[in-house]
Amino acid sequence: MIIYAWIFCLIFMGFLLLFGQMTWLKKVQELLRRTEEGMDQASHLRALDNRHRLMELRQRNSIWRCMEDTLRYSGLSRRFPGCTAEKWIAGNLLMYAGVFCIAQVAGGKVTVSVAVTVSVAVMEWMVMNTLRFLEFRSVNEDLLKCLNFLGNYSLTAGEITSVLGQVSKYMEEPLRSAMEECAYEAQITGDHSTALLTMAEKVEHPKFKELARNLEISIRYMADLTTLVDSSRRSVREYLRTEEERKGMLREAAINMGLLAAMSIFALLTVDRLIDESVWKILLQTLPGHLAAGSYVGIFFLFLRKVYGFRR
After folding, report:
1. By the 8 A CB rule, do 97 and 91 touch?
2. pTM of the model
3. CA–CA separation, 76 vs 238, rounded Å?
């Protein structure tokens, strides 16, 4: 009887722990569901607020707007429609925490873990800016073609958005999606001005934004849109010519950076053979070495900032 009583108690405790664990899992799932719903609701409310401000021609800079612009201009929000600023920031925090914990378990030093986490953040920043640069270059290549197509139509204020929808078939991303969504929004809401202003905010290119805003102003005052397109075409050609000159300057700067890096490595290797102490040990384990390495890293990041800031 005692054995049966023990077996009954063990089975009872097993079922109790099982049901308790299931209840705990349900609570965790409910918490995650409420958190996701709260993020989606906050993103939706912020989108409505941004749209209201857009119609009033007022913009507010914030970390959320900066993050949304980064996701939009890099093309991630187009490839992953469910990716919002809240989810992206939460996912990054979890990723950095995971990287820090893994580095802490592998290395055991806080400084090493922090360095690895910062390296991952820098790599992510470079990837995001590279994606933005590729999107910008795609718009750069398609913008003049877009204006040439628009110039083949007899544009009127009532049909400009539908013409944009027809021209979008011949464009590449991100212009294709921006123009298609503009035409669809204008067709559904009947508000051509807001559709054009919204389209301007979806593409990171100064001349495309200028074209969209000029079209919006023109349809409000019934201006000659054909003349506007011809003027924009001349402006874009001048912009592309100036951009080629800037590219030449950046190529020269890249060559100079390459020469600086090569000469620095050659100098370090030469000094390493001339002195008894390892120059790499001095560079990595002494304060003057840290200052010198920090100077080189700072110059490199200033160069990267100039390169990635080229599109602005």
Report:
1. no
2. 0.76
3. 31
- Whether 39 contacts 90, CB under 8 Å: yes
Q: State the CB neighbour count (10 A cutoff) for residue 195.
A: 24
Number of H helices, E strands in the chain: 12, 0
What gap in Å lies between CA 235 and CA 245, rounded to an integer? 16
Integer Cα distance of 289 and 161 in angstroms? 60
CA angle in degrees (0–180, nearest 5) for 245-251-253: 110
Please state the φ and ψ torsions of residue 305, each to the nearest 5 degrees.
-65, -40
Query: How does pLDDT run across 141-194, given as a tens digit for each residue?
Result: 899 999 988 888 766 555 788 888 889 989 998 999 999 999 998 888 888 888
Write out pLDDT tens, residues 194-226: 888 889 889 989 999 999 988 888 887 766 677
CA distance 108 to 97: 15
Q: Which helix (H) or strand (E) element contains residue 272?
A: helix 225-274
